[in-house]
């Protein structure tokens, strides 16, 4: 991305203003598995994330989500229980991607849905 893109756009990463603010007024707190960097203001009143890649809130792990919203203080490792074997990695929001859910009647599947099975009776004002 060019310098003009960094100045004026926010959807492909942090703008120059956010980067400068993070450098001058922010204190790095940590980094998650996706490479997102988390910052806190020196007075501790503001918390924010600089995404590694496209800005999408679903890319923030549940552990860091609680920290961002002030539910917890300190890094997630300090207040979370150990990871259990049955837990899976969080899945990002797939809406708008090729991996998004598309039912059988969706246009992407040819726009044809299964025929009605006869279990539906249309309402009629004359029927009682």
| Largest sheet composition | 3 strands, antiparallel
Note the total helix count. Answer: 4
Number of strands: 3
Strand order of the largest sheet: 1-2-3
SSE run: HHEEEHH
Uncertain runs: none
CA-atom Rg in angstroms: 23 Å
Q: What separation lies between the terminal Cα atoms?
A: 66 Å
What does this structure look like?
The protein has a domain at 3-82. It has 128 residues and is of the alpha+beta class. Helix content is 21%, strand content 12%.
Quick recap:
The protein is α+β, with helices and mostly antiparallel strands and 128 residues long. The chain has helices spanning 3-8, 16-25, 62-68, 76-79, and strands at residues 26-31, 37-41, 47-50. The chain has a domain at 3-82.
Question: Which helices and strands, and how do they pair?
Answer:
Blueprint: H1 3-8, H2 16-25, E1 26-31, E2 37-41, E3 47-50, H3 62-68, H4 76-79
Antiparallel strand pairs: 1-2, 2-3
Task: Provide keyphrases for this structure.
128 residues, alpha+beta, 3-stranded antiparallel β-sheet, 3 strands, 21% helix
